[in-house]
Amino acid sequence: MKSKLTTRRRVMVLTTGLLIVFLIMVFLTPYRAFFCGLLLGTSVSLYNYLYLFWKLKLVVESVQTGNRVRGTGMVNRFLVVVFAMIIAARFPDTLDVRGVLVGLPLCYILSIFSYFTTPKAQRG
């Protein structure tokens, strides 16, 4: 579980750094709507990543104690994505749908990147 915590921390730090960069880019570039959409998509991605991590931790604990195995909250994560897309579609001059779509998988990509850049001895 230690390696998973390390991966989660790395993803959180990298995502926070990206969110700060995207926020700066909102004010420095003429592509304000795209970077606002990217901020929304990345924020939803971070929420979904942390929510999945928390639900998987609960599933592991329930399996270890012999309790009923609960789901991983897939419907909740899908609804958050749909809500973000509805917001982006409702305000196209403020949020670009393409930016939201680019931001949605970022935490999962960073998680894979973090896993493969971690030395094999620490992976677990």
From TrEMBL:
Subcellular localization: Cell membrane
Keyword Cell division in annotation: no
GO CC term (a single one): plasma membrane
UniProt organism field: Shimazuella alba
Pfam families, alphabetized: ATP-synt_I
Membrane-related topology note: Multi-pass membrane protein
Keyword annotations: Cell membrane, Membrane, Transmembrane, Transmembrane helix
UniProt KW Membrane keyword: yes
Subcellular location, principal: membrane
Residues passing through the membrane, by range: 12-31, 37-54, 74-91, 97-116
Domain of life: Bacteria
InterPro entries given in the database record: ATP_synth_I (IPR005598), ATP_synth_I_Bacilli (IPR039072)
Official protein name in the record: ATP synthase I chain
